[in-house]
Amino acid sequence: MGKPEEAAAELRALSDKARSDGDRRTALFAMTVVQADAGRLDKALEEVEKQYALGEKIGDVAAMTGDLQLKGNILVEMGKYDEAKAEFDKLLKMTEESTLSPEIKNNARLFHHYNLVTVALGKKDFAAAKAGAEAFRKGAEVSKNPNQLRQAHELAGMIALAEKDYDKAIAELQQASQQNPQNLYRLSQAYQGKGDNAKAKEFAARAAGFNSLPQLNYAFVRTKARKLASSSG
């Protein structure tokens, strides 16, 4: 509805009345999404720092690594790629040194490739991005995890989009998760790059109207997608 201040007020009330750190974390994460959606990424980062402090207080490694992932994602969106990489590296190191299961550690090692591809793309280091995407794809094929296989197509699509290879971007992104509104927005960008404004607006409208439960992926693209969907031409 475009009322971020009212949303923030409701979430502050929820946080103030929280009966547990779990309730407090829920409020803080939702606040992170609200701030990101409003374009205040520095404020979003502050909310994640508060979440991280809650996990750190009780040594909750799973929660802390999740927060480091959020921080890295926000920093990538802010264009602070070296800082993002530092958070992603910290995430992997913390996971490796924890008592979490071998499966979780293996998954963290694989997903680290995904994270580094987002950093490399931000820096327009396409060679590093392609090497990381290939490493992720091979790992996903070994695991036969459907979600990871879709993420492999997502990375390939992101790289193709950055290189302005719009046909390849569309082919890859259509095989990526359609439950990630960022992929719908990327498809709209690819169609726009091809000059197919009707398709660009169609996918932008789908991204803008995704209306998911609170998630950063949606917050990162909702406003941009609405503008593209309603643009003339």
Can you tell me about this structure?
The protein has 233 residues and is mostly helical. The protein has a domain at 20-100: Alpha Horseshoe (Serine Threonine Protein Phosphatase 5, Tetratricopeptide repeat), CATH 1.25.40.10. It has helices at residues 4-16, 21-37, 41-58, 61-78, 81-96, 102-122, 126-143, 146-162, 166-173, 181-194, 197-208, 216-230. Helix 8 (146-162) runs parallel beside helix 10 (181-194).
Taking all Cα atoms into account, the compactness measure Rg is: 18 Å
- Counted by DSSP, the helix tally is 12
Overall pLDDT, averaged?
Answer: 94
Total strands: the figure is 0
Strand portion, in percent? under 5%
Order of helices and strands: HHHHHHHHHHHH
The CATH superfamily name of the domain at 20-100 is Tetratricopeptide repeat domain
Largest sheet: none
Helix content: over 70%
Give structural attributes:
Serine Threonine Protein Phosphatase 5, Tetratricopeptide repeat; 0% strand; mainly alpha; single chain
Task: Give a brief outline of the structure.
The chain is mainly α.
